[in-house]
Amino acid sequence: MPPEVAIMQDALSIELIRRQLSAKTVARQIYLFGEVASTNDALRHLAKAGAREGTTVLAESQSAGRGRLGKGWFSPFGVNLYASVLFRPAISPKEAPVFSFMASLAVADAVRSVGFPAAIKWPNDILVNRKKVAGVLAELATSGDQLDYVILGLGVNLNVGREALIEALGDAGRAASSLRELAGKDIDRNAFTASFLTFLDEWFHVYQDRGVETLLQAWRERDILTGRRVEVREEGSVFQGRALGVDAEGHLLVEESKGRPRQVVAGQVRLVD
């Protein structure tokens, strides 16, 4: 079958997603684009125009997709999931990082639902067999000390080929994978999208009903770093230590050689062992 025909048959469809979706808040309104600069940027424009909580943006491709620390996100057309979801919680900005954990849980659960033992690497990478298959980018808007909204953006490598990853990302592509590569067959993108949105809605309501500690405990159960030796690269410093898990605010704690925990707020972390 010609590639262009396969893409058309597997095109994202709001109708097909809604048939498989079970959600109270997430995806109340879904916008689907062929290409955007990034789904986060597209949703930010909608948020500023008054879009309600749960509004979701999907795209077949991104021309300027991005991840943490300003890194680009490879976003080829018609093969993966690129999505952003809007929340308007009545919380302070310092509490907003919990939403990144919420999104990571939802992606990990969606990956597990198609048969893969997904793990989370702080703060936002989803791994299968220690290869990255997805990432989350949470962005927020504030007015003074008030939180206006949170946008949860994500990219999931569903059907992109290994050759394309390596060609686009070089060595970083060798550390990544796709669910298609792992499964040996194409992943139904509409079914996966519906699954992710359903899990995100479930975790959002768990957070509302039972609080942040319940979310953090679930996240810790999926955490791949705790108890293992890691290397941390922060601005101006590099150090190694044993990961101790996350604190109540979601910051990574790493035990250095002197035995004292060091809080990591931002930076790059990799497994050493």
List the helices and strands and how they pair.
Elements lengths: L2 H7 L4 H6 L10 E7 L2 H10 L7 E7 L18 E7 L10 H16 L5 E3 L3 E4 L2 E13 L2 E11 L5 H8 L1 H4 L4 H5 L5 H22 L1 H11 L6 E6 L2 E10 L5 E4 L5 E4 L3 E4 L2
Parallel strand pairs: 1-2
Antiparallel strand pairs: 2-3, 3-7, 4-5, 5-6, 6-7, 8-9, 8-12, 9-10, 10-11
Helix pairs in contact: 4-8, 4-9, 8-9
Structural account:
By secondary structure, this protein is an alpha+beta fold. The protein has 2 domains: 3-222, 2-Layer Sandwich (BirA Bifunctional Protein, domain 2); 229-271, Roll (SH3 type barrels). The protein has 9 helices and 12 strands. Mean pLDDT is 90; it is low at 1-8.
Task: Output the keywords.
single chain; 273 residues; alpha+beta; BirA Bifunctional Protein, domain 2; SH3 type barrels; 2 domains; 12 strands; disordered N terminus
Kindly summarize this structure in a few lines.
This protein has 273 residues and is an alpha+beta fold. 33% of the residues lie in helices and 29% in strands.
